[in-house]
Amino acid sequence: MADIPAAGTVPEMRRDEELTTADGRPLRVALRRSQRQLRRRAFYLVAPLLVFLLVTFGWPIANMIAGSVYNPEVAHFLPLTSSAISDWDGEDVPGEDVFAAMAMDMESGLANRTIGRAAGRINREIPGARSLVMGTARDLEDMQPPYREAFLAEDERWGDLEFWRLIKRETRIVTPAYYLLALDFEYNSRGEIVERPEIYQVYRQLFWRTAWMSLTITALCVLLGYPVAHLLATLPLKTSNVLMILVLLPFWTSLLVRTSAWIVLLQQQGVINDLLVWANIIDASGRIRMIYNQTGTIIAMTHILLPFMILPLYSVMKTIPPSYMRAARSLGATQFTAFTKVYMPLTIPGVAAGVLLVFILAIGYYITPALVGGESGIFISNLIAQNMQGTSAQLKLASALATILLVGVLFFYWLFNKLIGVDRLKFG
Amino acid sequence: MKRKTLLLAAAAVLPAAAAVAQEGSLTIVSWGGAYSMSQQKAYHEPYTDKTGTRILTQDESANALAGIRSQVDAGNVTWDVVDMLQADAQRACDEGLIMQIPHDEWLAEAPDGTPPSDDFIEGTLGECFIPQILYATMFAYNEEAFPDGGPQTVADIWDLEAFPGTRSLQKIPQKNLEWALIADGVPGDEVYDVLATQEGQDRAFAKLDEIKDNVIWWSEGAQPPQMLADKEAVIATAYNGRIFNAQVSEDQPFQIMWDGQMFEVDGWVVPVEKSDEQLELIKDYLYFATDTQRLADQAKYIPYAPARQSSVPMVSTHEETGVEMQPHMPTTEKNFQNAVQFNTDFWADYGDLLEERFNAWLAQ
Amino acid sequence: MALPAYAGTGERVWYYSYRVICALIFLFLIVPIIVIVPLSFNARPYFTFTQGMLALDPSAYSLRWYDALFSSREWMNSIRNSFFIATSSALISTALGTLAALGLSRPQMPARAFITAILISPMIVPLIITAAALFSFYARLNLANTFFSIIMAHVVLGTPFVVITVTASLSGFDQQLIRAAQSLGANQVTTFFKVILPLLLPGVIAGGLFAFITSLDEVVVVLFLAGPEQTPMTVRMFSGLREEISPTILALASILVAISILLLTSMEFLRRRNERQRGISQT
């Protein structure tokens, strides 16, 4: 953008010599008006896409985020219980008023088929509560007041304080419960936030794994991308244009094609294992497992994302005049010193752009880990996808996980904008 | 070309609307593939021949729960009859997304007059669910891997010394935890009581730990026969229909181990919010498509067992190969003895929790 | 970067080993893509080079997997679906994206950085999140499983590439040219078609090609949005890969590699043309 002349900027002028246009209006006002008009015109060009994106992209995502905290089940489908329980102190099994309200809620919930949604919500945190509520609701017509005794006679779990405390807590329409789950926390029976038992902890681990595997992939991309970008930037243009094709072809080739190529190469009956067996390095029964684990994901994703590192590095290195290095050498620096003290600092913007871009793209990956990751090489996206196909509670958990991932991605995107500027992004 | 694709697009955008507007048509959702084909031959074609009602099919059962939920939320339900697993039907029923079904009122009696609620195999009927078929998930092995005879019991599967080699299990907690407990000595009919306790869950996971290093996991039904054929695994859990195909159509040396196999039921559900008129049409179709003869007919095309007892004796030979189907039916006396009924109610209660624990266990 | 005459032995060793390392990295980049092409001509259903293939025995090669691909109605339908979706969404993306890029390149554009960041964001947001959000959005409108929803989703995913590419080709665009044209008596319409568009066209076509290939390769969103009528080839490929990689998939993959080469060549051609026209070619 920098080389566009700052057209139309109003020059400073002194008030007392105010100029006017032909029709007598002050020039400042006229200029400002035309300026405004130009701004509006520029905006009108962008508006169709902006509106389109807000409606078909921004709005659906906002909706998904709203879904992750929306918690209407108890309040809407057990309305009487919700209001009756608000006065309960949480210390002893609630009184008849709460049980009677529950019985009436069950009756209407059975009639309009909503009781299951309330039961499902409670079950998310107290497994087994679903069949308790549903079973009692079905037997309701044979029961007589007082309901407190009748319920407790039906099933002793109705005397469980944890159950009632959960109901009281989840009468709120907006809940952080799914975010707690998404970070391996939960409420204990007293309503305090505690870590979940270790055997259920999985999401935080997956977030960490996603992060460190993405970092590893990014680091590998720097390691492999830097020398190649440097070579491309310093070779004569004719040669580098030809070699550039080797970078651009993978960039233009479908992700699925590249993933299948790696399956063909790395699987146990694949090309590399065959080669090793043929060369007598390993024997036929000792074929190496290089895929369906973390190694598989890291190799395939490094390959897929490498061009995203090379291209920004190359475009920065291209702007560094070779005379800088020559100058450093002529002043007595060794090749090594000249490279590390003069050249490398100049490439930092390119490295930053590549690193952020590769990292941002990597942490959201789904397809490649799903195909070559096995169990140990999957990312958080894979668990989001898995939860999306389940119960409505799992769907909300998926939305919460997705929102956390999104916040992470947006943070790095913001950083990218701040450090590099998104308008500096270029392909090819 | 351009024009044609444009027309194609218009046709694709509109079918939902067209389906509703057209008098006498039903939109039926199923799994696709060989299974949909068997329904096409056994149910849809004879029904259209008889009544002239047009049947539009969609292969969306894999996303049925999410699909019905969003249609009901939007108040715009275009699916008339949906093929679903009993466990998913239970969830949809709980959420009030599908209709409750008075089986005796809607469905045909058996030829001898037995009411439907007695004719369907016990435990298969659901509040909102009309069963069609039973299928089994069980262990199968490659004979070539065990020249001295393969595993005979679920406990044998855990015996890595007598039966060495890689096992392939489905990447879900369902069924694997049950088998772990059975291998650990829990009788089949007590499995779910044990699994409902913290100790039982610990015990099941501890048992799975014993073979974890020798397990590779599958996620698509087509994988286990392939893995057995490639000798990537010597024992695998699989759907009985898939193993049948490999045995009969591809001559693979596979054996099914009929011990501790778990039954699941697949059947029809009807989403809520149907107009009276459309509901009549749906009821008419279901009356026809779930009667004794139709269910027996389906077994000609696919080796899954009809859910009606009265259909079982009527099962004959495989349409394509002429193979006698009875010995391959999971409900045949000889195969049925040590079967365990998959408990959908249990999994509706504990599914979320145990899936998380399973994922955590896998990620270790 | 030729080796200077004054280089010492150590430097010489480093210079050559550096070249070798780079060569290895280039191999890493290109070999996986190249290796599947001969394997797709394997006469036997394996994913490795048979003795016959290595001996260049013609009978070890065959077109059977291509034949299987082209004679399969499902595969052909899905390929047709993919191209229909990619063409439609690329056209819409190009129109919307070019307009936006024209606006963004005007010096008077308000809040440029912020709006650019929004317009580029579909490229940055993880696809699984986009897929989850769009699935429930279109399902609510009862538009899931329609070409309409898939094309709209792909327009969203394709426009960032158009915006980036066209904006890049506009940077360095000399605004004086417009004033020059107008001072010589051209009106706005003439200026646009005679001056702006010819200079812009290579960038627009390149952006369109990017949007096209983005849609053609996209898997995650269609996995959720496409019904059986719309199944594109990527979804079929994905489920094929999940079950068991088949040689037919390699045949399709090889065809896709050929398409990539074709697109890459046209891009390169456009880039050079653009540089020549703008007189910034550096040869």
UniProtKB/TrEMBL annotation, chain A:
It comes from the Bacteria. It is a multi-pass membrane protein. The keyword Transcription does not apply. InterPro entries: MetI-like, MetI-like_sf. Gene3D superfamilies: MetI-like. CDD domains: TM_PBP2. It is found in: Cell membrane. Keywords: Cell membrane, Membrane, Transmembrane, Transmembrane helix, Transport. GO terms for cellular component: plasma membrane. The chain crosses the membrane at residues 42-62, 211-235, 242-265, 298-316, 346-367, 397-416. Belongs to the binding-protein-dependent transport system permease family. CysTW subfamily. PANTHER family: ABC TRANSPORTER PERMEASE PROTEIN, INNER MEMBRANE ABC TRANSPORTER PERMEASE PROTEIN YDCU-RELATED-RELATED. This is Spermidine Putrescine ABC transporter permease component PotB. It comes from Lutibaculum baratangense AMV1.
TrEMBL record, chain B:
It comes from Lutibaculum baratangense AMV1. Transmembrane segments: none annotated. Coiled coil: none annotated. It holds the Pfam family SBP_bac_8. Residues 1-21 form the signal peptide. This is Spermidine/putrescine-binding periplasmic protein. It comes from the Bacteria. SUPFAM superfamilies: Periplasmic binding protein-like II. The lineage of its organism: Bacteria, Pseudomonadati, Pseudomonadota, Alphaproteobacteria, Hyphomicrobiales. Keywords: Periplasm, Signal.
Automatic annotation (TrEMBL), chain C:
Residues 79-267 form the ABC transmembrane type-1 domain. PROSITE patterns: ABC_TM1. It is found in: Cell inner membrane; Cell membrane. It is a multi-pass membrane protein. It comes from the Bacteria. GO terms for biological process: transmembrane transport. Belongs to the binding-protein-dependent transport system permease family. This is Spermidine Putrescine ABC transporter permease component potC. It comes from Lutibaculum baratangense AMV1.
